[in-house]
Amino acid sequence: MTVPSDKSVRPDEPFDEPLDEPFDKSAAIAEVLACAPGVPTVFTTGFASRVAAALDDRPNHFYMTGSMGLALSVGTGVAMGSGRTTVVVDGDGSLLMNPATLLAVGADPDLPIVHVVLDDGVYASTGGQPTPGRRADLGGLAAASGYRTVREATTRPALRAALCSALAADSAVFIRCPVQPDAAPPGGRVTPDLPGVAARFAGSVTGGSRFPAPPE
What stretches in the chain show pLDDT beneath 50? Predict the structure, then answer.
């Protein structure tokens, strides 16, 4: 089901940020952290992972590193393996690197996954080269692939409202956020202890137990 822009939606609680504040990647990620504090969350490679780690490095965060286009693939596996609602913070360039994963999610529209795409129109990590994302209907691609719900959030209050709704949906939700590129550089690179990050994340998702083995 395609849902029109959330411009008129209000958050469930008072919003204490100036409404004229720039809606950039960092602001959007801050909303994700506020709305999903304990939810397994996969951040795409590049600035999204660096921003999230700098804002609040949590055990339920998985930071993609050197694997552009695979955030949704990892998030889909986490949601399928654990049965838990999983958030994927993606980028327009990353999604367009591997759009076939939309079809994998659409094949199981009851999968509890919240796919947030931060569309700033550039490859920020490599110098700000333009992506073709603004010429593509990313929400239309998600809807055609089979997502239950497709939303667009153009402000922080709208993103907060969309996330609150999506996290309660228990089905595949796609949220496109047209954002401005960040004016300030992100935090430092994610820790080199990537195996440690992965182990910490797995423990957070499963409570210390291993993911169930796939059926033979």
Answer: 1-19, 214
